[in-house]
């Protein structure tokens, strides 16, 4: 159902380190020593939970829609009622275009790897790498991030303007498709990334500015804060110098954010 492709990973010095550990389930199956009443209660609970359908589970009568993605026309197949969780796809599926037996959507300008993750989210409520909670460190991490600092989770899409973080593209596409929870998830995953090259951050920030409305400032603010936190690294970056010379709204916002940051520091009492 899903089409997968290789992810690009960089082994550079990271701005932050994140490790994850998988917790093992501590639940035990009821033994024969349990009272009959307890066993019956557990069976009833299991039956009740299994009877509740997943919000993304397709119905038996749902039609199959073929989606052609990208210039290479990579084909995906999905249930119509699963796609309809997106207002954008719901509107498309209910239009006159779909009054035929051959249901097909063409998305020539989308990235197949990005759409694969969006489709995975529609079915499972998350996409790889999934977000995991580390009880020992009381923090959120990305799945498989415990392999060490030399294995950073940086999945990028190679575009005509340079590498762009896949989560950034997913955020922008989720806005287009009306998937607000996916936007939150993609933004959260970007905050857990580490070992990202300066050039990738700057290219992704420009993409975010070009593909989000002015009233949606969360993704833009994420990149401004990231650049400010790593300002000593960016100060030595030749890519940063070239980007600033090119200009754009990104760098005016960065200037304002940097001034506000300096004002906040100067307002703190000296000890």
Automatic annotation (TrEMBL):
What protein name does the entry list? BTB domain-containing protein
Which PANTHER family does this entry report, sorted A to Z? BTB DOMAIN-CONTAINING PROTEIN, BTB DOMAIN-CONTAINING PROTEIN-RELATED
Please list the residue ranges annotated as the BTB domain.
63-126
CDD domains assigned to the protein according to its UniProt record, in alphabetical order: BTB_POZ_ZBTB_KLHL-like
Q: Where do Basic residues bias regions lie?
A: 16-27
In which domain of life is the source organism classified?
A: Eukaryota
Source taxonomy lineage?
Eukaryota, Fungi, Dikarya, Ascomycota, Pezizomycotina
Q: Which residue intervals are annotated with compositional bias (Low complexity) in the record?
A: 43-59
Tell me the PROSITE patterns matching this sequence: BTB
The segment annotated Disordered runs over: 1-60
Q: Return the Polar residues bias intervals.
A: 1-13
InterPro entries the UniProt entry points to: BTB/POZ_dom, SKP1/BTB/POZ_sf
Which species expresses this protein natively?
Cochliobolus heterostrophus (strain C5 / ATCC 48332 / race O) (Southern corn leaf blight fungus)
